[in-house]
Amino acid sequence: MSGPNGDPHVLGGGAGDDGGEGGDTFEEEEYAAINSMLDQINSCLDHLEQKNDHLHICLKELLESNRQTRLEFQQQSKQLNTGADVQGSQPPA
Known about the structure:
Protein name: Bublin coiled-coil protein
Distance between the termini: 93 Å
Oligomer: single chain
Organism: Hirundo rustica rustica
Strand content: under 5%
Pfam family, one: UPF0184
Number of helices: 1
Number of strands: 0
Helix content: over 70%
Radius of gyration: 34 Å
Order of helices and strands: H
Region (Disordered): 1-26, 74-93
């Protein structure tokens, strides 16, 4: 369960259960290390998200290019087939 600031709620005693300040310092260092690791993970995830977005854009462009090329080939094929039909129906000279 989390506290009001999103910090984990620690059951049992709180800071200073051992009667000294050493426990607080260790917890603060531990939280700082965890926060640093989470920041690094977040940074890596942001970088991956940017790469994913870039790849998505590139793939969409490639897909559109392939569609356009396929349409051009289909049109050329139709024109060649139509031209061959016209030549085939005419008597030889």
